[in-house]
């Protein structure tokens, strides 16, 4: 054990206390200890460690506290009944007694009773209620030094020089300093006297300097305002970091912290975090343990199974539609039929019920059956029929045919013994093969006869807590007690062969597996609450994707939404149902936004890609993309849906751009004009094709011009009421990308050699002339965007550079290189303070360009693949990013995002506020202030 004097400690004293009770007394006590006996020119004399003043935000809280304990010479315990029950106080005392000695523990009584039994040489634990008995029983050989500070609670504020407090603090400082109390107090009083004498002398000087101080005070106030602003910015950034660290484990609190961060200071970091906040999982609390989740195959419904039955939600997870109850016992398994009109529910007492859910708000029981006495462990519909494969605890699998009268139940073919099968079952997509766990460490594959019987095809040694067939039926994923999942090729069910091993990094085994509907992703849920996503593009070599760590209990079930963009997970975690913690844990269902095997922060996903530079129509509610070109309704308040399709003559797609009026649309193959006032029935304005095709179609900001490329040259076209006509061809070889600047008076293009950006003066469209030339050095310009007179250039080296363009002059303002590959796309928010860039590396970066001299990255969005188009809507609410085969969309307006975050989370509590904003008055961001009501006497 370490002895005093063997080392120089970082801290003289470590204060252990209950935050709930003694935060105020601990603050006053710390100030008094540090102030005691110090000369006026020092900030403190003793070095005191207290977590709230010494610890910064860190994900490793105990490691930091343990380090501080190891660097402290003495431990002061502020004793109270709440401290005796505090796990942190008890943990700190245990560490001290294991690594130090009880001789260096001092006790400050702030509440409760301390009694010492002199005969036994021990605390009288019948009367002592403010110290943890388990930790301190037998820790002292003689009565320890303790001081009564219960009176300190009567003072909301107290000076460190308060006589009674000085006397009490001296009791602690004496052993720490190794001096007598009388000597310390005498020295303290002498220093105070000298201090008063010094203050008297200085007062004369201060009077002379008063005039100077007044002038300096004005400047100080200005600096104070700037310091206060800097403090708000620093706190806002800290809240953003805190939210990122807890977004999976405490999603509601993370949402609240993000709203408060932007409320305190609308920094670039706070804005970027809001845009990416859709990555925070939604939480659906359940009563008791969650047992299962299922999505309707055609979309629209999500079912969660738990102790209180089955709850039906809309697929966004935020609309609770209905409740399917169970006659007795909890719901243990749930599955939708292929048409989504029926739902099968199994319970803990062996009942299987079939419900009509064509009206989710009014589920209707169709029929029920009880195959045997065991609880239903798993069930699955067989193909598109109303037959179910069901497995119960410790029994054989059953086939329940709800298409026959009285729901006929078939166990297996005569003479086939399947005893020992546990509770996991899966059916191949074509309904011909059933897999079930067998004797805990095996998987049995069975073919299904037309009569509903089961024929054993093979038995494989593989721990099988969870089973799932791939959508094509070729592979079977198996999870078990070991720390990995296995993939089996079951194309020949009589001779399954191992295909791949998927390490779960969990010593508690794999309890759930699920394939996405595309088969390109697999999710495995472990006993330690973690979820691992796998990229199954090559099933023989699965690649690890994102790891989801929000659950604190066993992940019992997983299910992908039909579009593969949401993963639902059910686990045995959550808040206890009883206040004293004696009841079982509540379960939770989490909804994770995913893109294949990675997490996603996009709120909307469209199956069309190939997006042009001006794809948004009026009000940002109509979006044109895809091949053939399709108009989509993308109002954020509703699910996107197709409106109409435009004629195209190119199998590779065409460029599609909206004019600033939001109604006129130009398509590039061939070049045509359309009136989309009624987006359900677009009307062609041009009667003849203007040319064979255009790889670039771009409207000027005023809508009077269209730039369209013609064999490596750009043509300028008028857009009057008459047939559009070509005004000029730019005289030099140019190619896309291109962008208009200065309200359409200038046009920037990339040279044919892709070694520079050429700016053209098109103020007279029929006579365009060269203006400025921007050189990008060794890098090639790959993308362009503009806001007023600022031109942004993305290049092949991953840099985004801002240029100020004025007539024939172009000045480089600032640059930032954050992409690891070429910047394929750029877009600027209509208000000009925010930009977005997309790279071939699969990332979209959000930039604060309010000061273009110093572009600052505020967020990174993972889109999973290289970008193929990017644009902000005209109202600035939406950022759309195309990746070729799909388009993802983000809400970009902070006020709208904050409203959504508030609607998805409970207001921050006083306790949480005190933890993250201890120096500020409680003012939750998502609660409207109550108006003051005046009443007459």
UniProtKB/TrEMBL annotation:
WD repeats lie at residues 457-498, 510-537, 548-580, 816-857. The keyword Lyase does not apply. PANTHER family: TRANSCRIPTION INITIATION FACTOR TFIID, TRANSCRIPTION INITIATION FACTOR TFIID SUBUNIT 5. PROSITE patterns: TIR, WD_REPEATS_1, WD_REPEATS_2, WD_REPEATS_REGION. The chain crosses the membrane at residues 199-218. This is TIR domain-containing protein. Keywords: Membrane, Repeat, Transmembrane, Transmembrane helix, WD repeat. It holds the Pfam family WD40. Residues 9-132 form the TIR domain. It comes from Streptomyces ambofaciens. SMART domains: TIR (SM00255), WD40 (SM00320).
